[in-house]
Design a protein that fits this description.
The protein is of the alpha/beta class. The protein has 3 domains: 40 residues; 93 residues, Immunoglobulin-like; 237 residues, Alpha/Beta hydrolase fold, catalytic domain (Rossmann fold, 3-Layer(aba) Sandwich). It contains 11 helices and 18 strands.
Length: 388
């Protein structure tokens, strides 16, 4: 508490002594004054030359601090030094981007010294980017870069304005004549419209694939697939219907697609539309895409959240279109899931259901679990097959 009062007092003194700063910008704060106002934090995370990564967290009064990271299972205990800084050094299994958090006396917190945050409605994670010797598709490279835009549209479907993110490739000219195909890319449960580019690095992946001639130029739309938090805040819903897909499908067909076709130079034919999603987004993409094969000729599901007999009953109850219509319409049906993913067995069941109905599809079943590390690999492969 004394330290806080000291900082406040010093800040007040600095501001008083620099009251004329607005009239005289040359009177900048000195390094000593800035250091007193903003004491330095610890360096975290730190990628070391030997390939290890050190995480640090300053909490002198904490009884226990642990690191939770998708590099490994469970939590790892951290060690406190004389300055009250907890630390741990770990060896990543591979170069990748890993979500992590600190568990401080049982409470999950992000790393206060790391600005790279995992956008999510529920858990609070930071991100550590472990680079390899050779740049990967998810890494920033010296290529022409596209643009991520934050946009808002009014949804009559739910009754209020909603956000989405849009990726436009390098060279996109809103006043030009060229029209681009569109991928509608859906996040997972509790993720947000920012997760596919902040965690999935979809903009970097597409920049690099396009630059190497491996993917077509396309626009990518990342809507916020879960309107329920805002609906509940406004008294328009009492709970979240995670498994329902009608609201999502209506939002895409009646709100998002018309918004994009009004405000961007996009193709309006089914050959120029794709939909893909991860986890709950995979469930939603299957319902929207397979349920409307006249709208989407590319449907991709990454570890889709389907359960029980849904892979069969969805064909019987009309959520998915008739198999013969799907067979004659789709240019690509993609299914992928990690062999350690809790949705692996249901993905295998969906694979079987598609095969039994004669629906041609491609699969990718690598190792690994329900992670964005796998998800980035899925979209890297899928992006090379779209609109060709």
């Amino acid at each position: 508490m004394k330290k806080i009062f000291l900082i406040v007092a010093v800040a007040a003194c600095v501001l008083f002594n620099n009251a004329s700063f607005a009239q005289n910008p040359s009177r900048a704060l000195t390094g000593k004054q800035l250091a007193a106002m903003f004491p330095p934090g610890v360096k975290s995370p730190e990628c070391n030359p030997d390939g290890t990564v050190t995480f640090r967290f300053q909490a002198g009064n904490a009884r226990q601090v642990e690191l939770n990271c998708q590099m490994f299972d469970g939590n790892k205990a951290m060690t406190k030094d004389e300055e009250g800084v907890w630390s741990i050094t770990v060896t990543p299994p591979a170069a990748d981007i890993y979500p992590y958090c600190f568990v401080v006396d049982g409470i999950q917190v992000t790393d206060p010294n790391n600005v790279h945050i995992f956008p999510n409605e529920n858990f609070k994670n930071s991100l550590v980017d472990v680079r390899g010797a050779v740049p990967d598709f998810q890494d920033m490279q010296d290529v022409p870069h596209g643009k991520i835009s934050y946009r808002y549209y009014h949804s009559v479907n739910v009754g209020f304005d909603r956000p989405l993110c849009v990726y436009t490739p390098a060279g996109y000219d809103p006043k030009g004549k060229e029209k681009y195909p569109v991928l509608y890319l859906i996040h997972g449960m509790t993720d947000t419209y920012e997760t596919w580019f902040k965690v999935g690095r979809i903009n970097m992946i597409l920049d690099n694939l396009i630059a190497q001639g491996l993917a077509e130029k396309m626009i990518i739309v990342m809507p916020y697939a879960n309107p329920y938090p805002e609906m509940m805040r406004r008294g328009l819903a009492k709970s979240m219907d995670y498994m329902g897909t009608d609201l999502f499908t209506n939002e895409i067909l009646n709100e998002v697609i018309p918004y994009m076709e009004t405000n961007y130079r996009v193709r309006t034919d089914a050959d120029g539309r794709a939909i893909a999603g991860f986890s709950l987004g995979g469930r939603q993409s299957l319902a929207c895409g397979l349920g409307n094969p006249g709208k989407f000729h590319y449907v991709c599901a990454f570890a889709p959240a389907i359960f029980g007999n849904e892979m069969s009953t969805n064909f019987d109850n009309g959520i998915y279109a008739e198999p013969e219509i799907i067979r004659s319409s789709l240019k690509l049906m993609w299914l992928s899931c990690g062999t350690s993913d809790f949705l692996y067995q249901t993905s295998l069941a969906l694979d079987k259901a598609l095969t039994e109905r004669g629906i041609e599809h491609k699969t990718m079943f690598p190792g690994g679990g329900h992670t964005w590390m796998n998800c980035r690999d899925y979209i890297t492969q899928v992006a090379q097959l779209l609109f060709k």
